[in-house]
Amino acid sequence: MQISAQVARSGPVTRGTRHRAVGFATPTPQGSRTVPADDIEVYAICHREAISPGEAKAFSLFRRHENGEARPFSIFVIRKSAREYVGYVNVCPHNRTWLNISSGGFLTADRARIACSRHRAEFDIESGTCLSGPCEGASLEPLALTIIAGDVCLCGVSLVEDESVREEPDETMEISIHPE
After folding, report:
1. What is the pLDDT of residues 116-158, one digit of tens each?
2. Which residues pair with 130 in a beta bridge?
3. pLDDT, tens only, 92-113
4. DSSP string for 130-180
5. Measured between alpha carbons, how far apart are the two ends of the chain, in Å?
6. Residue 4: strand pairing partners
7. Distance (Å, rounded) from C-alpha 131 to C-alpha 115?
8. To 10 degrees, the CA torsion angle through 81, 85, 86, 89?
9. Which GO terms describe its molecular function (predicted)?
């Protein structure tokens, strides 16, 4: 399930900063629909060459919620080919853990599917649908991506602006514990 955006910009794109979108297409059972640009925010995440074809990369961002609070927002982007990217929220629908929790990777050995390293679930790269494993039939949450001036940009998510968007390391993960 690809979600794409057309973006209007004036001036250079800076990673970690907001830009204005013209509109983006979202999937529906009947096809796709274009969402008006009034409320769309676009953030440059990384340069498109930072992800090699057939590879995936994780990013630690902060999403702004309705109450204004910034919360961690982990995503990953897969570069399917020279010009094709897909992105998902880094959460397995089985029990809401990161997909890359133990091995650091997102793809099966043959790079044909997305893999949950904790539960061995496998997902279709294009649609995010679980094809095998404990959450079979469930789907990953897709992200709208576009390329602007050579940068992979995330669309339609309200992020906290940060000049230093962080790429997650492959083999480690940060854990935050918040007492209730």
Report:
1. 988 889 999 999 999 999 999 999 999 999 999 999 999 988 8
2. 123
3. 998 888 898 766 689 999 999 9
4. EEESTTTT-B--EEEEEEETTEEEEES--B---SSPEEPPSS---------
5. 36
6. 25, 145
7. 10
8. 120
9. 2 iron, 2 sulfur cluster binding; metal ion binding
